[in-house]
Amino acid sequence: KRLFLVNGPNLNMLGRREPDTYGNKSLEDVVKLVEETAGESEFEITAFQSNHEGDLVDWIQRAEEEADGIILNPAAYTHTSIALRDAISAISKPVVEIHISNVHAREAFRHTSILAPVCSGQVVGFGIDGYRLATLGMIQKIESEGR
Ligand code: DQA
């Protein structure tokens, strides 16, 4: 079984970017954490990061053929992207949305997720540990549904 780990804009700068908000662990650390978590259940990870909305749409579409589910941090596109929402709606594979920071305790424009209504669930505000929680939740969902 395989999960896609898809990270959106500016997350390539994780660890160096606003460390008070996002911590000092890098995207590489996140990928390792998700690979380790998935490995416990013999799931494999394909990790992808892009600053470009269309590339993220391509990867969501690809999951329909190549993955059993997606762990997605859409970053700022969470709050703006109808294209990402339509891509999630277009596929049958489950998507879990994850945010490192507690978006609800931040600016009002971060309080709305355009994507959440078409995702299976959301993990918000647990720092990068949230990626582990999202991975466990997604594996549990896939296994319990016998997908
Ligand atoms: C984020 C929250 C978004 O509002 C922000 O644009 C990001 C990161 C998070 O992981 O906390 O880039 O998705």
Automatic annotation (TrEMBL):
Keywords: Amino-acid biosynthesis, Aromatic amino acid biosynthesis, Lyase. One of its GO terms (molecular function) is 3-dehydroquinate dehydratase activity. Pathway: Metabolic intermediate biosynthesis; chorismate biosynthesis; chorismate from D-erythrose 4-phosphate and phosphoenolpyruvate: step 3/7. The active site is at residues 22, 99. The record marks 17 as: Transition state stabilizer. It comes from the Bacteria. Its EC number is 4.2.1.10. InterPro entries: DHquinase_II, DHquinase_II_CS, DHquinase_II_sf. PROSITE patterns: DEHYDROQUINASE_II. It is an enzyme of class 4 (lyase). It catalyses: 3-dehydroquinate = 3-dehydroshikimate + H2O. Catalyzes a trans-dehydration via an enolate intermediate. Belongs to the type-II 3-dehydroquinase family. This is 3-dehydroquinate dehydratase. The gene is yqhS.
